[in-house]
Amino acid sequence: MKKKHQNIFFVLGVVLLALMATQLNFAEVWANLQRAGYWFFAVVGLWFFLYMFNTASWYIIIKSQEKTDADKKHISFWWLYKLSVSGFALNYATPGGLMGGEPYRIMELSPRIGVERATSSVLLFVMTHIFSHFWFWLFSIPLFILTQHVSVFMAIMLSVATCVLLLAIWFFLSGYKKGLAVRAMKLLGYIPGVRNWAKRYIETHKEQLENIDKQIAALHSQDRKTFFSVVFIEWLCRVCSALEVFFILLVLMPSVNYLNCILIISFTTLFANMLFFMPLQLGGREGGFLMSITGLGLTTNAGIFVALLVRVRELIWTAIGLLLIKVSRKE
What is the C-alpha to C-alpha distance for residues 247 and 43, in angstroms, rounded to an integer? Predict the structure, then answer.
């Protein structure tokens, strides 16, 4: 990636991070950090390992695209880890989510494996990352039924959620089989303001888009073992991310149930992703924690405590990711 483009990503991220940091009450943050003690360091350290899950799934996707000796390029796992953390940091900081991290990853990876493979690998990673969320939310429904009291209203909501999630899973499986690049560009062709640009782009880059779709479809149709391995790794990452809530709630209640922490993460991520257009999902994530924690019979103060510490952890890892943008290995 050109230094100019790298600096643009870095400056944009730093400005947005600074704006988000000003929304915090620093006295309240400091008081809660003192209360959490060493458990907060466990929360921050946990994400070093969770990002390894994400990097591993992306690394497997890239390696699965190597069909000939000419395709084989030496890509360090830890260099890819750096791109993963920086990509997630840009997604956290930019409104609309995928507006920062995915272009950054493609631009960094393209000089090594080519634009088409870089684009298809990033698209596949994003699709699998989202796809695993749907399976995680679907897994949480029977878990809720088995561990919580289900009212008539909740039974209706769970039934509706199950139908929506199954529909979303079907849509993504269709995208894996037929590719997504051409279909996504055609959808842009219906949006005012970018309609003409999308049509011109399809006409001039039709062959590249079709090649990207072939590479996306190949992972699902030709390499099922790799496909299911990547989905499982991403799903397992979602389950392990509940350790964050578990560590924080241990400060308040030593008898905290890990299954409840999974349900808290499930509902909170669902609610926060509905507000994907907000930087760091400001307000959405806090609201999700409050509703999910109080809904499971815990106190409002516990919800505020968890939400605040998670927000600080996100800011710390966003800052780390932005700093890693400026760290580059000399060729």
Answer: 7
- What's the pLDDT tens digit per position in 170-191? 888 887 777 667 777 777 677 6
Closest CA to 267 of 318, 231, 303: 303
The Cα 54–Cα 135 span in angstroms is 16
Q: Enumerate residue ranges in the chain where pLDDT < 70.
A: 1-29, 68-71, 94-100, 179-180, 188, 191-194, 220, 222, 272, 274-299, 328-331
pTM over 0.85: no
Count of Cβ atoms closer than 10 Å to residue 177 Cβ: 11
Rounded Cα distance, 82 and 229, in Å: 22
The token pair at 249 is 């709630």
- The tens digit of pLDDT for each residue in 200-226 reads 877 787 777 777 777 777 776 767 788
The full 3-state SS of 101-118, as one line of letters, equals: HHHHHHHHHHHHHCHHHH
CA of 148: how far to CAs of 268, 296, 297, 310, in Å?
A: 17, 8, 10, 25
Nearest Cα residue to 182 out of 119, 106, 95: 119
H-state helical runs in 205-257: 206-221, 224-240, 242-252
Report yes or no: 131 and 172 within 8 Å, Cβ to Cβ: yes
Rounded Cα distance between 195 and 220, Å, is 30
